[in-house]
Amino acid sequence: MIRTPLKSASKGVRTPARTPGTPGATKVREENIFVTVRVRPLSRREQASNDQIAWECTDEHTILSKNLNNERSTVPYTFDRVFDMNCLTQRVYEEGAKDVALSPLTGVNATIFAYGQTSSGKTFTMKGITESAVKDIDDHIRNSPERDFVLKISGMEIYNETVMDLLNRDSGPLRLLDDPEKGTIVEKLVEEVAKDSNHLRSLINICEAQRQVGETALNDTSSRSHQIIRLTIESCLRENSTRVKSFVASLNLVDLAGSERAAQTKTDGTRLKEGSHINRSLLTLMTVIRKLSAGGRMGHIPYRDSKLTRILQPSLGGNSRTAIICTMSPALSHLEQSRNTLSFASSAKEVKNTAQVNMVVSEKQLLKNLQNKVALLEAELHSPEPPSSLKSLLVDREMKIQKMMIEMEELKRERDQAQSELELERKMQKNKRGSPRHVVRSLAFPAEDESISDDHISLSGKRSKLGRNTMMRRSTADPSMLVHEIRKLEKRQKQLGEEANRALEVLHKEVSSQKLGSQDAAETIAKLLSEIKEMNFASSISEDIKVGGKTSLKDEISRLNSEGVTIATLEKQLENAQNSIDKLMLSLQCNDKLGPSPLRNSTNRSHLIRSPCSPLSSYRDVRESEQENQSPQIVNAVHRAHTPIEPCKATPKKEDCRGNSSRESTPGSRRKNSVNVKRMQEMFKNAAEENIRSIRTYVTELKERVAKLQYQKQLLVCQVLELEENETSASESGLSAQSPMSWRLVFEEQREQIIMLWHLCHVSIVHRTQFYLLFRGDPDDQMYMEVELRRLTWLEQKLAEVGNASPALLGDEPASSVSSSIRALKQEREQLAKRATSRLTAQELEMLYIKWDVPAGGKQRRLQLVNKLWTDPHNMQHIKDSAEVVAKLVGFCESGEQITKEMFELNFALPSDKKPWMGWNLISNLLQHL
Ligand SMILES: Nc1ncnc2c1ncn2[C@@H]1O[C@H](COP(=O)(O)OP(=O)(O)OP(=O)(O)O)[C@@H](O)[C@H]1O
């Protein structure tokens, strides 16, 4: 039953626990003393004297005097329980004491005492209660294998106002001491640990045997002292082997001596003296109870007036649950004493106690535990072997590293495979089409028409150095990819040079064969042609694109730098050619005596070849047409196929169209021939002019492409330099990643720039909201932020330069003007405003009107509201609030999953893997379909 005894908790610090530690335990709670009344049967003496039963229990709670003395009125007494004379002690225990008796098992002090006149049955009842309580406690301990219990017992009696130890009779009178923490304690009181229930019972028996008992007229075995048997129960969870904290509480089983009247007990001498002490201490108890029942309104509580009340102080209005069983004789002869008992009981039931769960913290055990821990740590510290926890951590980490390395190898293998597949496909495409055009779209950065100018990264002072440096420093390209791009770029450079060559050759041919324009212009063309021919593009370019390793990057970059001059030269030459052609055209127009030139004939405009720079076509359309990479001859051939002027007319031959060159001329035919010659001359001239015009357009386009190539080269150089810088700094510091803190700063900076650029470029506010809400500064967001910044920088530059770009240029939409971007934004706002009523409740809308200062009663309030959103790029709170409103209107919370971060990413993948960025206009379209 009682397991391995714990050390005594008396050396520990007792603290009332604020929370229960086991089921059934209670928090601090106030409850009344539980008062029951037990009426014993008439004793043999009473029966012998024909005493009458003066009381009847009308129900389980009420007892009433039978008024046998014919008093004027009888008052019923009610209590928590009333047990009549037939009631067994077990029931009294079950209904009147058990709940309180078991409280110490959950750390709550408890007291059960019997009060009543002599021979009323107190000892009889308490014996039964004690036996039942011991049994139940034993059962509880047996049924709680998860806890360790220690049960200790002490016994004392207060005899003639002297405290005696019932387990150590020889110790003599014991002193009462006042402990600031524990209250009143009995000095040197022996406390025995019960080994088991039998041991406990035997100890209890010893106590009872030691108690002062004497014979009186009313009771052969009258208790002459107040007996207190105290069971102290300490318990803790088994798993808490350290036993630093445990519950500790006591159960006081108190059998009071009975009040007596000397006349009745017929005592004298010793018994009289005993009775006198008994009565005096009981009187104090009654006073204490009476005062407590008045809720403290009666002032000082005289606990110290008797040893009984001093010892029982916690049980009377203190930290204890208390049950009082008032015993009484039913006899008419004891009517008055019984009334006194019931009066006492009535007062007692008004007394409130404040029981708490008591936790003990064993300082000694605590100290021992700490010492053990220190010893353990010291051992670990001095041990050459890492502690087991560290060991397992290292093993775990090692395994993770190995796993990551395997994954990396796998990724590398996949990448190499993809690259070789790409190479193969490129070669196949090249062989199949014979055109180098098809490699253009697989650039690691935007192709010519999507390229951006780093010169324009600075946005009129709106860019900070920090953001700019970050953009430059952070490259996602790897060395082999860069070399690959360099080679491709060189190849395109070569192609452009060759195309320029062919264009000028054709021009030269036209000029020289037709003797067109002024001599100066013709000479200029010839000079240009020879200059361009001298440019040896092919010298440093291998036909195949070979991806070099990291080691060749420096060579590549130095070559690129030197080739930058060549490209710039080509650009310059093409500009000269453009000027010369302009001069040529001018001289042709001045010398034109034959009527309107096709260049001035609006009806022929439609027959002009669609050039990449033509306002009649989108730039992208032409770039993607096959014509773009064809020489001017091919261009002309295409042109001729579409013009009403027959090809033969444009190419003067000695024979006519039908090949009748040998036919003799007649006057009619001569006149006719003269007209025909004139007409043919005019046609030749027109055709030549048209060809020159086409060549001029073509040269202009070439010039633009060369300029873009130049920019790409610069960007590539930057990327290579930045890569080298990264590698250097990484190898120096051993760190390659940006610290979270510095990224956070960069992120804030970049976001502010992006917000400003959105504003300046009239970007869709739905796009702004999506981007703003998706990218909140995760380290993974770095690439997206950079890409967005680059896109916007390019766009802003374009808007500033030509005023002819639109956000749509970044997406897949056809190009339009700045004004159309503004118009699109306006439309988007209108669409959002329309959605306001379906997406927001009237109340929400009204709140927004108030928040955004939309005047009440105004027209188009929804539109007014939407027009206020995303208008102040300097105010971050405004931006946040705007994003919230737009998100609600679009319903991102519900359907926002269709927008993923990847949509904002610059494409570095192969065309087949490419997930195209939706473009701002497309996002607006999406909005319309939501
Ligand atoms: N409920 C009961 N049923 C039967 N007998 C009882 C009952 N209560 C008491 N008695 C008997 O009455 C007698 C007196 O009881 P008890 O000694 O317990 O009284 P007491 O109140 O302790 O008296 P005292 O104050 O003098 O010690 C005993 O012989 C006891 O066996």
Can you walk through the features of this model?
By secondary structure, the protein is an alpha+beta fold. It folds into 4 domains: 356 residues, Kinesin motor domain (Kinesin, 3-Layer(aba) Sandwich); 29 residues; 253 residues; 190 residues, no CATH class. The protein contains 29 helices and 21 strands. The strands form 5 sheets. Strands 1, 3, 7, 8, 9, 10, 11, 14, 17, 18, 19 and 21 form a 12-stranded mixed sheet that branches. Strands 4-5-6 form a 3-stranded antiparallel sheet, with helices on one face. Strand 15 and strand 16 form a beta hairpin. Helix 15 packs antiparallel against helix 20 and helix 24 crosses helix 27. The chain is elongated. The structure holds adenosine-5'-triphosphate. Adenosine-5'-triphosphate binds next to helix 4 and strand 16. It holds the Pfam family Kinesin. GO terms for molecular function: ATP binding; microtubule binding; microtubule motor activity. InterPro entries: Kinesin-like_fam, Kinesin_motor_CS, Kinesin_motor_dom, Kinesin_motor_dom_sf, NACK_C, P-loop_NTPase. It comes from Papaver atlanticum.
